[in-house]
Design goal:
disordered C terminus
């Protein structure tokens, strides 16, 4: 603890970072200094000059870790850093990479997890590896000595705190289960989900189904389907089932329904919950109620 500092570039000056980095470790061989939002620290030329002076002769016992989302290696201090530092790119996992990560993580922890449980966990938590690990820890405590984690375990542990997600809403629409879709929507609104986000994600979902209709016509492989519509391979069977419940005409009509709902939310003071309820009804029943949009 004496040899570990974390600071933010938006709240610290370069001289303070240099002072920490230039300090010898206490009762340890190394000292670690982490600077997040590094690009904000070096926005001013005077701050860059102070840091560059340290980089010319850095203290060997200090590991100075500079974190930034937008490095420009054509400009200082990044040009100098590239010559003297190790550059590590830490990209977030894509959606189709997360299930494999979960499976690998579970295997390392000497446990097993059913494919459906992996899917549900991903849908609840998203792509945050820290969030996924936290939920795995809770799941293993919950299941005790049971070796395999099932979907119902994930619903019981993670679902209790996370509520329903956009992915579950998509699945309910894919099954044309209007009652379940409306229940999920209600909980999403209660948890503060943005109506615009819901429309964006549902538009993406129906775009996937529209692409899938052409892939089915060409008799594409499951692997090609997974890559083209952007889902993990073991989700393909569900999406094929969803696409069988919608004709191409219904999918194309869904885009108009989604566009109308988006326009209504942006141009009127109508209650968002009512707009979304009508949207789900139109998407599932396939008969959009076209109302004039009031100014």
């Amino acid at each position: 603890g004496f040899n570990y500092d974390v600071v933010y570039g938006s709240k610290v000056e370069a001289k303070d970072v240099v002072a920490m980095a230039a300090s010898f470790p206490m009762m340890s061989q190394r000292r670690i200094v982490v600077v997040k939002e590094f690009e904000k620290l070096v926005a001013a030329e005077s701050e860059r000059d102070i840091l560059l002076a340290y980089l010319a002769r850095p203290l060997e016992s200090t590991s100075l870790i500079l974190i930034t989302e937008k490095p420009d290696f054509r400009k200082k201090p990044f040009t100098d850093l590239k010559k003297k530092a190790v550059v590590v790119e830490c990209n977030a996992l894509y959606d189709n990479q997360v299930p494999a990560w979960i499976g690998s993580r579970v295997k390392k922890l000497k446990r097993e997890m059913s494919p459906q449980a992996v899917r549900v966990l991903h849908e609840y938590v998203g792509n945050s590896l820290r969030g996924l690990q936290n939920e795995l820890d809770k799941l293993f405590i919950f299941v005790g000595d049971k070796r395999t984690v099932e979907a119902e375990d994930v619903h019981a542990v993670v679902g209790a705190s996370k509520g329903y997600t956009i992915f579950e809403l998509q699945n309910a629409l894919g099954r044309k289960d209007l009652k379940q879709a409306l229940t999920i929507l209600e909980r999403m609104i209660e948890y503060g989900e943005s109506p615009q986000f819901i429309i964006v994600m549902l538009t993406r979902f129906f775009t996937q189904l529209w692409k899938l209709s052409e892939l089915k016509r060409r008799k594409a492989s499951n692997q090609e389907i997974a890559v083209t519509i952007g889902v993990p391979p073991f989700f393909v069977r569900d999406y094929l089932d969803f696409s069988n419940r919608y004709t191409v005409e219904q999918i194309e009509r869904s885009f108009r329904v989604l566009l109308d709902a988006d326009a209504t939310l942006k141009s009127t003071s109508r209650e968002p919950r009512l707009v979304l309820d009508l949207l789900l009804y139109s998407l599932v029943r396939g008969n959009a109620v076209r109302e004039p949009i009031a100014g």
